[in-house]
Amino acid sequence: MSMGQAGMLFVFGFAFLIAAIVIVSMLVWASTKKAQASAAREANYRELAAKAGEDAAEVRASLAEIKGRLASVERMLKEVD
Fold this sequence. Notes:
mainly alpha
C-alpha cells in the first residue's frame, strides 16, 4: 500500500467515524425529543383527567341538589291534593 492510499484510507475512515457520530447524535436527540413530547402529553392527560374528576363532582353535587328540590316539590304537591 502506498503512502497516498494510506492517507486516502485514513481520510475515508475519519469521515466515516464523523458520519457515524453525527448519525448516532441525531438518533439520541430524536429519542430525547420524543420522550419529552410523550412526557408533556402525559402531563396534559393527567391535568385533563383531574379536571374531568372535578367536573364530575360538581355534576354529582348539582344532581343531588336537584333531587332534593324535586322531592320537596313532590311533597308540596301531595299536600295540595
